Amino acid sequence: MSDLQSSDMPQRPGVVIAGASGRMGQMLIRLVLEEGGLRLVGALERPGHLWIGRDAGACVGAPEAGVPVTDDAVTAIAQAQAVIDFTAPEATLALAELTAQARAVHVIGTTGLDETHLAALKAAARHAPIIRAGNMSLGVNLLVGLTRRVAAALGEDWDIEVVEAHHRHKVDAPSGTALMLGEAAAEGRGATLADLRTPAREGITGARQAGSIGFSAIRGGDVVGEHDVIFAGAGERIVLRHLATDRAIFARGALRAALWGQDKGPGEYDMADVLGL
Ligand SMILES: NC(=O)C1=CN([C@@H]2O[C@H](COP(=O)(O)OP(=O)(O)OC[C@H]3O[C@@H](n4cnc5c(N)ncnc54)[C@H](O)[C@@H]3O)[C@@H](O)[C@H]2O)C=CC1
Ligand SMILES: O=C(O)C1=N[C@H](C(=O)O)C[C@H](O)C1
Question: Which residues are annotated as a binding site?
Fold first, then answer.
């Protein structure tokens, strides 16, 4: 068992990592075990997963953590002050109910949530803090603010397009980040994304509608995550870009959020709250 896992510092908040074997789950387990702020008390995977019963640390190539991967979310969350969840929408909803019951902080990175999912999360947040963001990196959350400012400064004659690229395994589009950026651009124009969003283009789409916001998604290889916000005017373009090259940026944001949430009351928060942006 790693020194940081031993019970020498019982005051550290206990954290459950959901989606333990996922790209983000593995990164999170490694960072919790390496860094000092949180204590790993649970690692969740879906029932039937190969890792169930095996040591979470050993599974991710770290020293033994003394924490077996489990599908028993109720027991795991009962011991936790925080749950970090990068899974899938239905799993996130189930976890929100349990996390609310345990009055633990729920940090949600899962994307692809629809209006029904969001309504259920709002209800869960009446009982405990939920910190949710489509992207937990500092860079993207700064870019969100820049996008809002640039959109506010430019008139409707500047067309706004968000282009994103991700690895071949990603299941949702546009990405959660692209939607955050699109929402910020719409806010800059005094509207909501629902008002301005253009449906995905294919076939004879007609000319671009003035003031609309369009999205394009590229999927391939092992791209971690790339986002461009393009402001296209007559004779010139502005491109705001974020390139992620290491998933640790998302994981570090999530760990910071779990700690930040420890003294917060029930409610919905995002990374701008955590980062003080
Ligand atoms: N907000 C952010 O900064 C980021 C968000 N994401 C999002 O996080 C999510 C996960 O991304 P990845 O790790 O790349 O996906 P992944 O597919 O590698 O991992 C998801 C894991 O969740 C597990 N899972 C599914 N249902 C479960 C359940 N009921 N209980 C426990 N575990 C369950 C799966 O078995 C899998 O291991 C996606 O929605 C992705 O878009 C990813 C990176 C950054
Ligand atoms: O699925 C991913 O990988 C990522 N998902 C998030 C998103 O949907 O924007 C964040 C990041 O881009 C990686």
Answer: 19-24, 45-46, 109-111, 133-136, 167, 176-177
ipTM over 0.90: yes
Report the nearest-CA residue for atom 2 of ligand 2.
170
Q: How many CB atoms lie within 10 A of CB 35?
A: 12
* Ligand 2 centre distance from Cα of residue 178 (Å): 9
Weakest mean pLDDT among 8-17, 88-97, 158-167: 8-17
Beta strands in 2-89 (DSSP E): 14-18, 39-44, 69-70, 82-85
For the chain, give every domain's residue range. 3-132+248-275, 138-244
Provide the whole-model pTM. 0.96
Which value, to the nearest 10 degrees, does the dihedral of the CA atoms of residues 42, 252, 167, 105 take? 50
Q: Which bound ligand lies closest to the C-alpha atom of 251?
A: 1
Q: CATH for 138-244?
A: 3.30.360.10
